[in-house]
Design brief:
The chain is α/β, with parallel strands linked by helices. It has eleven helices and twelve strands. It has a single domain, classed as Aldolase class I (TIM Barrel, Alpha-Beta Barrel). Strand 11, helix 9 and strand 12 form a beta-alpha-beta unit.
Length: 241
């Protein structure tokens, strides 16, 4: 299983939100590049980055930060937030971003997702499924829908998608543990057809163990690293066994 330490960017700063609420923004690190290098030093191979300004505005905002991490570390950068076109995907991949995350557009413009997979390959495209009570939310989690998270996953698998990040928004930034029930349902529904990454609520090694026991592809860790409730080195070592 892959451990994805996370850096979310708002107004150029490394921040975390509580349940996706922009009014709860909390600065968690002073320097994004030093933070990324710290992740690399303890064994991380990937980094999960989110352009929160981009997610809200529907366009790339903090591009230099992500390309800096791609250029100045050996980390593979997985990036989401405000990616709404094939042109933006192509630009990011050309700048050294390893994978791009498509969130809101998966629901609102599924053809873009299938076109992206066809043009860039399934290894480069991740669909982020963010949900409240099992229903998909969009536009930086500011809008809700009547689409069930497993229903969207099935549709995206049909479009050629192989990688998914599932976030229970009610858990995100809360340090209250991952939503094991919904993750297990998603893993079972997509078994043999997709790779699932857990996001939201990771608190301690117990969450890492639970995700690995479910056979998930990866786990994203954000606030737990910054607050010190999870040792990133220990999590990475366990995930590799």
């Amino acid at each position: 299983m892959i451990i994805f330490p996370a850096i979310d960017i708002k107004d150029g700063n490394c921040v975390r939100l509580f349940k996706g609420d922009f009014s709860t923004v909390e600065k968690v690190a002073s320097d994004y590049l030093e933070t990324a290098k710290g992740f690399e030093e303890v064994g991380a191979e990937w980094i999960h980055m989110v352009d929160l300004d981009g997610a809200k505005e529907g366009r790339p905002v903090n591009t230099k930060i992500y390309t800096d991490v791609a250029e100045k570390t050996n980390l593979k950068v997985e990036l989401g937030g405000g990616i709404r076109s094939l042109e933006t995907i192509e630009e990011y991949l050309g700048m050294g971003i390893e994978r791009v995350i498509l969130g809101s557009v998966a629901l609102k413009n599924p053809k873009l997702v299938s076109d992206a997979v066809e043009k860039f390959g399934s290894e480069k495209i991740v669909v982020g499924i963010d949900a409240v009570n099992g229903m998909v939310a969009t536009e930086g989690w500011l809008e809700s829908s009547d689409v069930n998270y497993i229903e969207l996953a099935d549709k995206m698998i049909g479009a050629g998608v192989k990688y998914f990040i599932f976030t229970d928004i009610s858990k995100d930034g809360t340090l209250s543990g991952v939503n094991v029930d919904q993750l297990r349902e998603l893993a079972k529904a997509t078994e043999g057809r997709a790779n699932i990454v857990a996001s939201g609520g990771v608190h301690t090694m117990a969450d890492i163990i639970a995700c690995k026991e479910m056979g998930l592809y990866g786990t994203i860790c954000g606030k737990s690293i910054y607050k010190g409730t999870l040792d990133l080195r220990e999590a990475i070592r366990y995930s590799e066994v």
